[in-house]
C-alpha cells in the first residue's frame, strides 16, 4: 500500500488529510476515559498542573538561584541591557575562559524584569512566573498531543480538528503532573527550560499551521515555516535544547505530512530505485521546507558559535567523571548507564535529587558490574520500539512510535555527551522536553492495552491512580524545593555518596550558625572526595573561627596545593597565618590570592589588617583604599581607615574619609559612629551628637554607641544627658571597658556640684 502511494501522482493536501482521517485507526476508539470539549480539557490540565506546584510559590532562592539571580549583576538596572547579549547565564563574559558558555539572554531578561517589577530580590514573583509558564506549557500540550497522536487535519475553514481528544488529554495530564518536572518549576533557574519548552511548542504548532490551505491554494505557507524557524531560534536563546525543534519539525513533516515509510525509503536508496524520483515527495515541497529548516538551523548555530567566542567550556572531573575516563569503553558504558537512569526517572520518578555529581553514581569500570543489566534493559526496549517504528505494517503505529522516539531522543541529544562534554552526570531539568516523547509512548501503550483488555475501566482507574500518585509526589517534591535545608537534606537518602550533597547541608548549617553540625558534614564531604577544595576551604574557615588554627592551616594548605589558583583558600590561609603570627607567610598568601583574583576587595581588607598589626600604617591605608575602590560599599575597610587615622591623630583626614564613606553608604550606623567620634575629638559637638543619635536610632542596643555619646556630653558639659547614656550603656553591657570608670567620675563630679550648690 505504501509503495502504491509513493508511485502515485501527488494528491492535493486536503485530500491527503481527508483520507488520513478516513483510513487511519482512531486511538480514542477503545480507550475508556473522559471525553471533554477542548476548552474544558485545557482548563482541567491547567488546574491540575497548578495544584502540583502551587505550594512552591513562596519558596526561597535555593541552590543555583544564588549564582544565576542574586549574584548576577545582569539583573540590576545599572547594568546595560546590551551586556546580556555578551554574557552567559551566570553573568560572566562569554569570552572568559571560566564561562560555562550557557547562552540564555532571553531567560536572564525575564529574571531582570522580575527583579525590576518586584523592586528587589523577592522570590515570590519569580516562582509565580515559573508556575504560570508550566501551566501554559501543559495547556499547549493538549494541542501538541492531539496532533502527534491523532494526526493533522483542518476543516475547509482552516480550523484544526482534534482527532484524539481522550488520548491527548491523558498525555497532557501525564506531562503536567510528572514529578521530574519539579526542578524546572520549583527551582527558579528552571525558567530556562520552561521558556525553551514554551517557544519549542509554539515553533511546532506554527510549523503545523503552515499546512492550512490558504486562499491562493498553495500546499503550504512559507511564512509559517519561517515563523517556526524564528520561534526555534527564540527557544535556543532561552536554552540550548531549543534548536532541536527544527529537527523534530523535519521528522514530523516527513512522517505525518508526507507519510514516508522510513524503512522503505532506506531500501530504495540502497538499491538506487528510480521509482524514488517519481514518488511525488518534492511536489509537496518537502525538500524546500527541509532546506529552510536546515538553513535556519545552520545560521542559528553559526551565530551562536560566533557569539561564544572561544572553545567549549572547561568542566572538571567531579562534574562529569565518565567524560574524563581514558578508556573509550568506560566512557561509552557509563554514558549509556546515564541514559538508562534518565529513562528510569521518567518511568519511576521517585528518587529525585538536586545534584547527581561527585560520586553519586560511581563509574562502571568492568562488564562484571551488575548495573550493566540497566543498559541491556534500556537497549532491549529501544531496539524493540525502533524495530516496530520501522518495520510494522501498521502505518499508524509506525508514525506514533517514530514521533514518540523522536521527541524522546532528539531534545536529549545536547545533554548526551555525544557531541560535546556536558557539566553534569544527570540533570532532571534536561528531561523536561524528552518527557513529551515518554508521554506519547505511554499513552499509545495504554491505548493498545485498552484495545486488548476486556475490562477497560480497570486500566483507566490504573492510569488515574498513576496521575494521583504523581500529583502527590509533585506536591511533596515542590515543598522540598521551598528551602535549601529541606532540599539538601532530601538528597542525603538518594545520593549518600555525593560529596556535594554533604557540602551543601554543611554550608546551610554553617550559615545558620550551627558550626558543630556543619563540621561533621564538611568532614564527610572531604572523606568522600579528598580533592574537594571548597569543602576544605569552608571547613578550614570554621576551624579558624574556633581557634583550631593548626588543622585549619593544614586543610587550607592542602586546598591550595590541589588547586593553586584558588584565591579564596589563599586568603583564608593568610588569615590563619596572621593569627599564628607568621606575618611574612600571611602577606605572601594574601598577595598570591590577589594575583589569582585581581579584583579581590576582601583580600585587600585583610592585607590592610596585617599591615596595621605590623604598624605599617601607610601600607594599611593603601590596602583599605584599594578595597573601597574595588567595592565602594566595603564598610569594614572604610571604618578601619577612619579608626587608624583617628588613632594616629590625623583627625582632619579621618573626617574627610568618614564623610566620603557616608556619602557612598549613607545608612551605615558603624560609619556614623566612627565619624561621630572623630568630630567629637575635633570639638564639633553638635554635628557629632547628631551622628551619634542617628547611629543609636539605627542600632539602639549597641552599648558602645551610648557610652561614647555619654563621653561627648561629658566633655560638652551636658552632664545629665551624659549620666543617662552612661546608665543605658552599662545596662546593655555592664562590663563595657572604660564606661564604669567614666560613669563614676561623672557621679563624683555631680556630687561635688550638688555640695557646692547646697
TrEMBL record:
Give TM segment ranges. 39-57, 131-151, 163-182, 188-208, 220-237, 286-305, 372-391, 403-424, 430-449
Recorded metabolic or biological pathway in which this protein acts: Protein modification; protein glycosylation
Pfam families with a match to the protein in the record: TMTC_DUF1736 (PF08409), TPR_16 (PF13432), TPR_19 (PF14559)
Question: Biological process GO terms, please?
Answer: endoplasmic reticulum unfolded protein response
What's the Enzyme Commission number for this chain? Answer: 2.4.1.109
Which EC class is the enzyme in?
transferase
NAD is among the record's keywords: no
Could you tell me the keywords of this UniProt record? Endoplasmic reticulum, Membrane, Repeat, TPR repeat, Transferase, Transmembrane, Transmembrane helix
Q: Where in the cell?
A: Endoplasmic reticulum; Membrane
- Intervals holding TPR repeats: 499-532, 533-566, 601-634, 703-736
- Protein's name in the database: dolichyl-phosphate-mannose--protein mannosyltransferase
Q: Where does this protein come from, organism-wise?
A: Zapornia atra (Henderson crake)
